[in-house]
Structure formats: C-alpha cells, structure tokens
Amino acid sequence: MFFERVWSYLSRVNKVIFQIIIGTLFSHPLRGCFYGVSHNVISSKKKTSVSDDQSVGGQAVIEGVMMRSPRRIATAVRKPDKKILTKDAPYIAISKRHKLLNIPIFRGAVSFFEMLIIGMKALNFSADVALEEVQKTERGADWQRTQGEKIKDGLILAGMIALAFGLSLGVFFALPLFLTETMGMSKNALSFNVVAGVIRVSFFLAYLWIISWWKEIRRILEYHGAEHKSIFAFESGEELSVENVRKYSTHHPRCGTSFLLIVVILAILLFAVADTIVEMQIGHRPTLLQRFITHFSLLPLLGGISYELLKLSGKKRHSRYIQWLSAPGLWLQKITTQEPDDAQLEVAIVALKSALKET
Fold this sequence. Notes:
Blueprint: H1 2-26, E1 40-43, E2 46-49, E3 57-61, E4 64-68, E5 72-78, E6 84-90, H2 94-97, H3 106-139, H4 147-182, H5 189-211, H6 215-235, H7 242-246, H8 260-282, H9 288-297, H10 299-315, H11 320-336, H12 342-355
Antiparallel strand pairs: 1-2, 3-4, 4-5, 5-6
C-alpha cells in the first residue's frame, strides 16, 4: 500500500513536470499554443475575416483543455462519469489594460509570467478535479471534501508544482551548465553556450520521447492534439463540431514548438553575450553559479524577444525562411501531440466555445 501511494505521487509529479515543460515552455507567446495572428474565424456558422481580437490559443491539462481568447479563459475537464466540467472567467491581457506594459519586448516578458500563472491555475483546476474524483471512488460517490481537506490537497498540489518546477529547472537548465563546465568548455563564451544548448535540447528531446510512451502522459498528448485540431477548425471558419474538427491535423504551425529552433539559437547568442559582458565586468571567467544566475535572470528578456519574433513569424508565416525555421518544431509535434478520440475532441470544443463567449 505504501509503495502504491508513493508511485501514485510520483506519477502526479511527472504529470506536473510534463505540464510545466510543455505548458509553461510552449503554451504562451514564447512557448507555444497562443496564436496572435490574424486569420479567418468562425462567427456562428459564417466564415468571416477578423483581426487579432479573435486570436485564440490553449494548453492541454489533465483530462482536459484550457483555451484562451482575448476576452475569456475557459478550462474543460472530462470527469470519470463522462460529464464535462467547465470553468471560465473574463480575461483581458495585462498588457492591454496598461499601455506602459505594452512596450515591445517588455510585453513579452510580462506575458511570460502572466501565462505561467494562467497555465498553473488551469493545471491546478484539472488536478483538483482528478484528485476529488479519485477520493470519491475510494470513499463513495456521496463523499464531500471538507474545507480542511481542500486546503491540504491544495498544499499538496502546490508542493508538487514547486517540486516539478525545481526538478525541471535543475535538469534542463542547471545540469547542462554543470556538464559543459566539467568538459572544460568555459574558455570561450560562445562555444560554452553552444555545447550547453545542445545538451539542454538533447535532454529535453530524450525526456519527451521517454515519457510519450507512458499511458497517462499519452492522454495529455492526445488532448494537446485535440486542442490543435479545434483551433485549426476555428481558424478555417468551420462550425465547431466533432465531425468538422476531426479532419484537421494535430500539427499546428503556430504552436510555439514550431519555433523551438529560433528560441534555442536566440538563447545561445543571448547567453554568450551576457557571459562576455559579465567576464569583462568582473575581470575573470564567470563561475558556474555566476553563469546560472546570469542566465536565469535573462529568461524574461529571452521571453520578450521570443514573443516579438513569434508575432513577426506569424505575419511572415508564408516566408520559406520562416517555414524552414519552424520545420524542426513541427517534427517535434509528432511527439508532443497524438491523435485524439472523439470524446477528447468534444472537451476541446467545449473549452474553445466557452472561451469565445461574449459575456
């Protein structure tokens, strides 16, 4: 019983790690599935051309999908009894509410943290629903959690997220720096960051490939595919029905994974320049800790620049150079998305429709 409980906790932690890596790194304008380009969208059953005011995007969560439009955020989750539970709320991006926060590059950094919070809230909601359903199965359908149990479960989920974030930061950010340092590559800032970047991407790809075989994680990948299909149908002006959505691809060219190569190259150059400046300031090559602090502090700037590049690439998406740069990310979507079933498509459609509500 003890080992089963430990394994269950480890399983949940791994889900959260995956959500942070896929959702946090690839679900906002730097990372991913929030598309900020003009396109044709559906208005009732009509196909009309509109502006960025109708741009939408989303994120897969545990047994569900979160969708965001410029006016509303909605998360739909499939419960074990097959019913779909939906949570939605009005939303206006903070950069739209405060003009000073809408400055190029700076708005991307602000969006980085805003989408991180939104993604974590959606993940927490889906995990909370899943946890409550498990407890009802064990204790009876009429069982209701007390306020104390809700607080305890919330603390457990928060702890899992913190642990997952720490592990992902250590494995995919700090460890590549340590390995590159031990290889004796610290003499040249550019070569150091190229090697560290290659190691980081290799770890990331290996991790994705390994966990993609895990049944529970595969469910999340299928919901990721459902999210892409429903947005494809929306952009094409189709009525949002399972039959219409089913025919579209799970590989969306404007998911942030499509621009992984751009972000990787940008990170290498940015970190190399930063290391050089630090070395000039302190008079010697930065230590491993100094590199970590410098690189970590530059993540908001990396997010801001990447955001602007992603917006630009959306406007220039027919350029063969942009298509070439996005190709590796589309290949990666063969791992990060899987073909969903009709029930998963229905959840994604419910989330998207809820996000598109006017009030």
